[in-house]
Amino acid sequence: MSKEVTEEGEASQQVRDYVDPPPAPLFDAQELSLWSFYRAVIAEFVATLLFLYITIATVIGYNKQADNPCETVGLLGVAWAFGGMIFILVYSTAGISGGHINPAVTFGLLLIRKVSLIRAIAYMVAQCLGAICGVGIVKGILEDYYEDVGGGANTVSPLYSKGTALGAEIIGTFVLVYTVLSATDPKRNARDSHVPVLAPLPIGFAVFLVHLATIPITGTGINPARSFGAAVIYNKDKAWDDQWIFWVGPFLGALAAALYHQFVLRATAIKALGSFTSQPG
């Protein structure tokens, strides 16, 4: 076993043609003095606001004509709205803030030390505030229909148990965060020069496909800011009763995706052990 680990560690050193960026410090108070930090936080706020405005308006339009689906975009169109907006917004903001637009994504990147704790907290607060503002704009524009169709809030379908809903949120968020980590992996960026340009595309498709699978179960959260913003503006008991599912599920899914990416796909532990056992003496 030690020979295999040693050989794998030596091979990884020989073929590596990229350099991993150093891990972000857990606490970096110096960030608070940089304009780039506040610019990134503002970008996350605006991106999440736009995301919620377009998607919740689409959901309300779909629900308003539930008795005649031919007059609306349908479930497929709702899924496209979420996936398409993520594609657009990640592409637009990736160079400024990283294009998280989701506390679960931010949490996953924090776990693998791509962002500091201070930046992660600031992003999550900005995302939640942006979501509240985005849904608030929708309510102001579509006030006649907003309350009647549930305000676009995430709730568990009566056909499914809360356990099933929690599982759907965990798996759905795992798919999303796994895709984000894989699409932005510096190893792939070094090997395939087109990857940084195309990264928003698989991320958007992941959101689209997860929505197709889980809209009938939970309306699809996989984004605590999206669920929280809709619940705050709608503010009905049903939305708050199920709210914990849309926080616990995504954060557990992000945790599982981060562990899988780091310790299985990138074999961090094996590489470290290989490096250790290959030292002389």
Automatic annotation (TrEMBL):
<comment type="similarity">
    <text>Belongs to the MIP/aquaporin (TC 1.A.8) family. PIP (TC 1.A.8.11) subfamily.</text>
</comment>
<feature type="transmembrane region" description="Helical">
    <location>
        <begin position="195"/>
        <end position="217"/>
    </location>
</feature>
<keyword id="KW-0472">Membrane</keyword>
<dbReference type="GO" id="GO:0015250">
    <property type="term" value="F:water channel activity"/>
</dbReference>
<feature type="transmembrane region" description="Helical">
    <location>
        <begin position="244"/>
        <end position="265"/>
    </location>
</feature>
<protein>
    <submittedName>
        <fullName>Aquaporin PIP2-7-like isoform X1</fullName>
    </submittedName>
</protein>
<feature type="transmembrane region" description="Helical">
    <location>
        <begin position="120"/>
        <end position="142"/>
    </location>
</feature>
<keyword id="KW-0812">Transmembrane</keyword>
<feature type="transmembrane region" description="Helical">
    <location>
        <begin position="72"/>
        <end position="90"/>
    </location>
</feature>
<dbReference type="Pfam" id="PF00230">
    <property type="entry name" value="MIP"/>
</dbReference>
<dbReference type="InterPro" id="IPR034294">
    <property type="entry name" value="Aquaporin_transptr"/>
</dbReference>
<keyword id="KW-0813">Transport</keyword>
<feature type="transmembrane region" description="Helical">
    <location>
        <begin position="162"/>
        <end position="183"/>
    </location>
</feature>
<dbReference type="InterPro" id="IPR000425">
    <property type="entry name" value="MIP"/>
</dbReference>
<dbReference type="GO" id="GO:0005886">
    <property type="term" value="C:plasma membrane"/>
</dbReference>
<keyword id="KW-1133">Transmembrane helix</keyword>
<dbReference type="InterPro" id="IPR022357">
    <property type="entry name" value="MIP_CS"/>
</dbReference>
<dbReference type="InterPro" id="IPR023271">
    <property type="entry name" value="Aquaporin-like"/>
</dbReference>
<feature type="transmembrane region" description="Helical">
    <location>
        <begin position="37"/>
        <end position="60"/>
    </location>
</feature>
